[in-house]
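Folding follows sequence. Below is one example:
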Amino acid sequence: MKKFSSIFKFIFLISIFFLFSSRLSAEKFHLLFLSNTKKDSLMISQTDSLIENSNNLVCIFAKFQKELKFPHEIVFFNPKLFDDLVDSSEIKYPPIICSNVRNKADSSLFRFEPYKIVELSDTMKIGIISLVTPDFPHLFPKSSEQFSFRLNIFDCAKEVIAELIKQNVNFIIANNFLGKYLSKELSLRIPEIDFTVDSFEKIPEQYIRKTYNNRGILLLNYDKFSWLEFVVDIHQDK
């Protein structure tokens, strides 16, 4: 992928090793996180180039997109999702990827899916789950009225990951709104989670990278950036 210089862009390498044999193959893909989903947040020329070269790009939105269109997109449940939201039957929002939140009743506005599978190549099949803090209804009551929350995030995650394993995914990302302690505990309890992203806490930096038991946790503050891109370098059994 062509590299661009921008004050909004930060790239680092996340290496995750599956040491099951001495015969290892490597795969790479890009994670692009966007807080502002307007095209001008990426700058027109950079946006067009990213979209043209986006076969190995997974784009994660904090808000419903307005102008951008990537092949592999994730919208996750978080408070920013409801900023500037238009309640109209004419607007068809994409499904929200969230493993422990559902509509209380049928809703023409929102649809939920417990996970998303992204096939980047014949050998790279990524499963993405997303878990929301059980405290969400208390912290954001106005944004929670029409939703039901499954409070046992650990049982929920195990069930969803079991479904992903049945579908032969070879890399699992948990894109959470839990907080670093719950995300860390989830990663420790469920070793099938290969990489975790969490955006619950208002950290002072744009991102903080942590490692627990050789598995990475990336903490993000969407208020501190318009977009961030990360390269994930995976070494797995051939």
